[in-house]
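Supplementary Note 3. Input sequence used for the single-chain structure prediction.
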Amino acid sequence: MTITFDSTNSSAAPTSTGSGNTLLMPALSAAAGELILLWVQANAGPSTAITPAVTGVTWTQRASINNGGGQFLDLWFAIPSVPISGVQYTITQTGTNFLEGAFSLFTGVTNSATPYDSNGSLPATVTLAGNPPVAQITTSNANDVLVGFANNASVGVGSGYTTQLASSFMTIVYQIVSATVSGSTPITSNAVAIVGDAYTAATAAPAQQVVTGWVTHDW
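The predicted structure, written as discrete structure tokens, is reproduced below.
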């Protein structure tokens, strides 16, 4: 099955708040089986909860890193088992400072509790220690969507990647591939911290064999 980027329901710009420990996101709609990625940048403490509880939707935190200066980059994902429409989620963090979030949606991804590529190096995360930090994505599955997230709007974007948004203190990029990759760099420069990950395409159901014809019997 082919993975596609859902530009209609993905964020065109991040939503942010200047202070406080909660952020109300814009209304979200998604088809059943669609991959939803929620990217969060939080100052003074990581994001800890996504509410409200919605039937058929379970949020899982995939990554959370501290850039060394108290700024956290978090990645959450969910795959709803039923369609959702107009749901406004609230992000909660442990701190009370700046909070920013954005959604990325993709169709055609494996509908399971573990839709991400099985490569043990993922998610790829790096902070200032890289000087400059460069997160490299290596995959084990041939058909994936590669995603990257940096806490800066003026970053270098890796070859083959499409920028979903670059605004304020957040850049999100993605690339859909049909072969395994080794050392792919979604963000190449000017970032303080980076999260990179990959999600696998769903396997098409095998074709059903239909046999027709006459059967004769000797009586």
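The chain has a mean pLDDT of 90. Residues 167 and 175 are 19 Å apart (CA to CA).
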